[in-house]
Amino acid sequence: MILSNLPVLQVIIPLLAAPICALFPANRIAPIFTAIITFITLVIALTLASNTLETGSISYPMGGWKPPFGIEYNVDLLSSFILVLVSAVGFFSSIYAFKSVDAEIPRSKQPLFYSMFLLCFAGLLGITITNDAFNIYVFLEISSLATYALIAMGKDRRALLASLEYLILGTIGATFILIAVGFLYMMTGSLNISDIALRMPSLSDSIPVKAALAFFTIGLALKIAIFPLHLWLTNSYTNAPSFVSTFLSATATKVGIYVLIRVLFSLFGYEFSFKNLGLDKIVIVLGVFAIIIGAIAAVFQNNLKRLLAYSSVSQVGYIILGIGIASQTGLTASLIHVYGHALAKAALFMAAGCIMLQMGGVRLNKLQGVARKMPITMALFVISGLSLIGVPGTAGFISKWYLLQAAFEQQMWFIFAVIIFGSLLAVIYIWKIVEIAYFSKNLTDTRNVTEAPLLMLLPMAFLVLLTIIFGFYTQPIVGFASNTAEYLFNLSN
């Protein structure tokens, strides 16, 4: 009975846990409860992924109403891929939060803080698992509203401004997505993504359908923070509590990318999106600008969290670029990079949170010699940074290798050069931090600074370990990504 209801339990458990968490007293119950809930969702996600690999896609009609008449949850290769990522990052982040949140959020506000996190968490899982276009919008709003509150709880007053900026841009993006859903419903009379996809070939010349794709793409571009619609991301990641920056950097944009892939390949189809409308050219241009400008901006930052935020803009560009190449190899590279970047960036923001806790800030000119006092934190930071660069032996190398292979197959030599150039820029901004932390002669007074607490180091170390494992033992993630890419291209044909 329980196993047959796992798809709905994946969402309903954290969704129901959120208001319960808000009622807890201001003690240690809320973080422990949150860690338990995220662990349960991780177990469910892994079970669903295993079942999907064995038996194929899982359809769960809500309330017994068969699709397309009722709301359907659907777990296929792509959604199970993202469910595991969101659940895993949520669990490891919740362990990290024990010390991080204590240092940045007043104890009296922590039950509400964790409640907002669980709402955001449930929303992201709901976006991933639903097969209903309108429900994507509903869950998107649930996660976004909770995210605005989480960002606003940052200690710096600029967090309020960042939250307001994200609220305004996020609302515009959500409105565009809702308009797209309205156009599709007007033309097809259905909200079920699979049902709409079946009707799409006969509607390919319809102006409202083309408008729906345009509205979907722009709305998701805002949510994903694709250049030049990225400004909310840099301010939000910089000023949000460290735990929030960690979780959002690894999950929020990745779920947005999931929806974009789902829309382009499952809903509208590869032929319509790329061959008929030529969207691949626009996506490639945006990806190229994101890679280069995001990396250049990161080089000139003097705040570690802002540097990592601009790095995220650049790294998202690689994912978008792989989608724009519009081949199975390119999409495989994008999916691998989703995982590799999520693991590395979560670990990097965890390291930034450790430094903030122990040093009282993350401005680079205050971090001279920090590696001498926090050797484990900085060692883990460096390894994660090597993955962003794409050094062999890390997950980042595997994704960039496949991306270079995709560019080579399509003879896109300019794209090939952009990937290399972007990686060289990543070397510069990662080395900038390494030089300050390890080789600076004018050491900051760090006599009272010690290594970060064990509960903050353990989840960060595990994420770095996964980055290395996937760098050497590539079959699990490469096999999953390549099978998913093949599945999506078969859906489009």
List key phrases describing it.
493 residues; mainly alpha; two-stranded antiparallel ribbon; 20 helices; 2 strands; 2% strand; globular
Show the helix and strand layout.
Elements: H1 6-22, H2 29-55, E1 58-61, E2 72-75, H3 77-104, H4 110-129, H5 133-152, H6 158-188, H7 193-199, H8 207-224, H9 231-239, H10 242-267, H11 270-276, H12 279-299, H13 304-325, H14 328-359, H15 370-373, H16 375-389, H17 395-409, H18 413-439, H19 454-472, H20 475-492
Antiparallel strand pairs: 1-2
Helix pairs in contact: 1-2, 1-4, 2-3, 2-4, 3-4, 3-10, 3-14, 3-19, 4-5, 4-10, 5-6, 5-10, 6-8, 6-9, 8-10, 9-10, 9-13, 10-13, 10-14, 12-13, 12-18, 13-14, 13-17, 13-18, 14-16, 14-17, 14-19, 14-20, 16-18, 16-19, 17-18, 17-19
Structure commentary:
The chain is mainly α. It is built from 20 helices and 2 strands. It has helices spanning 6-22, 29-55, 77-104, 110-129, 133-152, 158-188, 193-199, 207-224, 231-239, 242-267, 270-276, 279-299, 304-325, 328-359, 370-373, 375-389, 395-409, 413-439, 454-472, 475-492; strands at residues 58-61, 72-75. Helix 5 (133-152) packs antiparallel against helix 6 (158-188) and helix 9 packs antiparallel against helix 10 (242-267). The chain is globular. The two termini are 36 Å apart.
